[in-house]
Amino acid sequence: MIAIILAGGGGTRLWPVSRQNSPKQLEAIVGPLSMLKATYARVRSKFEVEDIYVATAEDQVAAVLSQLPELSIDHIMQEPCRRDTAAAIGYTLLRLSVDRPDENFVIINSDAHVRDPDAYHAVISAAGRAVTADPSRTALIGLRPSYPETGYGYIKLASRLGHGGDGLEIYEVERFVEKPDRKTAEMYLADGSYLWNPTLIVGCVRSFLELYRLHLPQHAELFSQMRASFGSETETKIINDCFRRLPAVSIDYGILEKEQRLLVIPAEFGWMDIGNWRTVREVLARDHQENVVRGSYIEIDSVGNLIHCPEGKLVATVGISGMIIVDTGDALLICPQERAHEVKSIVDRLKADEKFKSFL
Fold this sequence. Notes:
By secondary structure, the protein is an alpha/beta fold.
């Protein structure tokens, strides 16, 4: 099986640590390793280096290679510009289809935390076996929710098809559900037939590319033009031109929500999407006051805060709770943790004002 690590996101909700020149996957957000290094180490424990590819933005290639020196340049799939996950995945599969069209692949996001790598790899293997048995079908991995999360999309289970090995079961997918409100998420948790959707996809290279013809024909046409240019003198120019013309569409919306023959395997392996500072706090160990601290910090009557500050700076708080304080030296973020998702709007404001663009 081929592992494709997606590492091209901007990570705007983790500003000011995550920046345009060093997005979140290249930073050590939840441990001593960058999220990309941690993801690679987890994948590398079960995959050979020749079976690992990274899809990233063209301007991040040097940084990816410096963090993952074991990978060769031809295993870095370079996106000329960001066009969301349907473009990133499709272009990578297009490249793989030249020499490895009938192999299985797994899509892995570089910004997720996994507490139980053994269970994680067991379900990927089970999904691989399901796809090998029927290469025309794509298998998803869904996570049994442990609380009523409103920030994730959900997968609704349909009929059970059988056992996938390792105590895992295979189901058909009934439908996808967008991020719900709190009351709906509580209903999903009580129902038991709804899974969190981490966009963990296992499929056959050739078969999955066919789904673009069915559901994203404009992508398929531009991919065809790119494929025809491979090895020619005009390859770079044509790929750059075609890539910029690709509609920006997520793989969930563009293909998964439209495809009728998906499989899903429910699993539990301690997964969490590191999407904002609130989830960072939830992942990391807390002190006796439930504060998460990186740097020097003293507090009085302060509970449940995330403090992230540079070496040589002290943060002191009195009587605050549930706050996020992130200091990078040139920028300071302060917000309640329940509004952590709105940090993206700060980045949008920075982009709109010329005098603030140096902080992006």
